[in-house]
Amino acid sequence: MSSFPGSVPDLSVLFLLLLLLPLPPISGGRGGGGGGHDYDRALHLSILFFEGQRSGRLPPDQRLRWRHDSALHDGSTAGVDLTGGYYDAGDNVKFGFPMAFTTTMLSWSIIDFGRNMGRELTHAVKAVKWATDYLLKATAIPGVVFVQVGDAFSDHNCWERPEDMDTVRTAYKIDSSHPGSDVAGDWPLPPLSSGHVTPSTPGFFSVVPFGYVFEFADRHRGAYSSSLHRAVCPFYCDVNGYQDELLWGAAWLHKASRSRVYREYIMRNEVVLHAGDTINEFGWDNKHAGINVLISKEVLMGKAGYFESFKQNADGFICSLLPGISHPQVQYSPGGLIFKAGGSNMQHVTSLSFLLLAYSNYLSHANKVVPCGGGRSASPALLKLLAKRQVNYILGDNPLRMSYMVGYGARYPQRIHHRASSLPSVQAHPAHIGCKAGSRFFLSPNPNPNLLAGAVVGGPNVTDAFPDSRPFFQESEPTTYINAPLVGLLAFFSAHP
């Protein structure tokens, strides 16, 4: 782990950080590491990736042409239309929990960094809309939220294209008798946040406010992994509990509506719902750091002094990420990559880096720094530097000189754990490929035939080693919730290289 002394002022910390977290020697120009990155191209690819994850009937302007219509009967067994939405990763299941988080992070990327997206803003809004159209369908019946389509066990027992899938497409729901405050607490956010951000954006879409879904989540408290354990565990089992999603939902509802009701809810439930717990976590299961950073913006703007404790939590989160400040749950690889135990490490890298950058901007506007104790502080410039180094690591500034974004740079993963990418496309092989017939493609040493442009994989391990191999799914599988925060990061750095 890289480190720096903790008893020096911020500018010295920044200088020493540059010295003690050196870039590995890398050759190559823009897009290949070393001499600067083509953040515009990386932004373009990061949004294009979502078109490869689309479920349902694809639109005429679909750009990844090797993908075709799929799952056109989703929801039919429950008498509802649940077509559309996104496959979360390299499989063919639609998991609602990570989809809601993905869409919220795409929306937050637009809220904070949409002005830096240029012509890609239209595509980013379309990526949000593809999900919100589905989320609206999933909440069309009052008192019911459909949170998953597809049986994960039967799906994971096959290796087949989404266009061919013939596995069980059960539609799983939560209701008053089978609560899921975690998923339902997350659900209102994408429509609200996207509606809040770009009402004047060309092609903007309007959605019905989802406050009633939050009320349902709060009234019928419980974790969806208790109600639907067999369906969702161990894939997207809620380990962290539902309390953070209720605060997360209230924070976004307050941001969007400025309603006193949600402000009072946050203040009343801050302790009950454990606002300060596990502050260095942020992802589809644990929203604590995101809650504190989101609410802290109002404190830094001088509009909500009553939320001061959230800013203190956000400051603590920032300090826990600084290299050299000991924290048992945050490590840095020898090459400088944030690393947290568990699978798909890049989900932590992009989500935590997004918060570093967002908080840096909030601090800059308030002319503030983060106090870390012992005379140490972290400036907005330092936070931006830390976030940028993580982005650059992903794009190729790492010991293997490899971009972890498919299609970016001269060298990137070729054998990603992704069914549609690894099997012949419908154009190349029109005949049906059955459940087990795809196994030979899974086990093949050959590169994937279809380029899932923009996909960012789970990434290297704590020693910076990466097996470019489909069976190593924790390292080689892309996910929507890896890419979603990266969209905002790349937008900012495309305008501030």
UniProtKB/TrEMBL annotation:
<dbReference type="InterPro" id="IPR012341">
    <property type="entry name" value="6hp_glycosidase-like_sf"/>
</dbReference>
<keyword id="KW-0136">Cellulose degradation</keyword>
<feature type="active site">
    <location>
        <position position="468"/>
    </location>
</feature>
<feature type="domain" description="Glycoside hydrolase family 9">
    <location>
        <begin position="213"/>
        <end position="490"/>
    </location>
</feature>
<dbReference type="GO" id="GO:0030245">
    <property type="term" value="P:cellulose catabolic process"/>
</dbReference>
<feature type="signal peptide">
    <location>
        <begin position="1"/>
        <end position="28"/>
    </location>
</feature>
<dbReference type="Pfam" id="PF00759">
    <property type="entry name" value="Glyco_hydro_9"/>
</dbReference>
<feature type="active site">
    <location>
        <position position="417"/>
    </location>
</feature>
<dbReference type="InterPro" id="IPR018221">
    <property type="entry name" value="Glyco_hydro_9_His_AS"/>
</dbReference>
<keyword id="KW-0119">Carbohydrate metabolism</keyword>
<keyword id="KW-0326">Glycosidase</keyword>
<dbReference type="InterPro" id="IPR008928">
    <property type="entry name" value="6-hairpin_glycosidase_sf"/>
</dbReference>
<dbReference type="InterPro" id="IPR033126">
    <property type="entry name" value="Glyco_hydro_9_Asp/Glu_AS"/>
</dbReference>
<keyword id="KW-0378">Hydrolase</keyword>
<comment type="similarity">
    <text>Belongs to the glycosyl hydrolase 9 (cellulase E) family.</text>
</comment>
<dbReference type="GO" id="GO:0008810">
    <property type="term" value="F:cellulase activity"/>
</dbReference>
<feature type="domain" description="Glycoside hydrolase family 9">
    <location>
        <begin position="39"/>
        <end position="186"/>
    </location>
</feature>
<dbReference type="InterPro" id="IPR001701">
    <property type="entry name" value="Glyco_hydro_9"/>
</dbReference>
<feature type="active site">
    <location>
        <position position="477"/>
    </location>
</feature>
<protein>
    <recommendedName>
        <fullName>Endoglucanase</fullName>
        <ecNumber>3.2.1.4</ecNumber>
    </recommendedName>
</protein>
<keyword id="KW-0732">Signal</keyword>
<keyword id="KW-0624">Polysaccharide degradation</keyword>
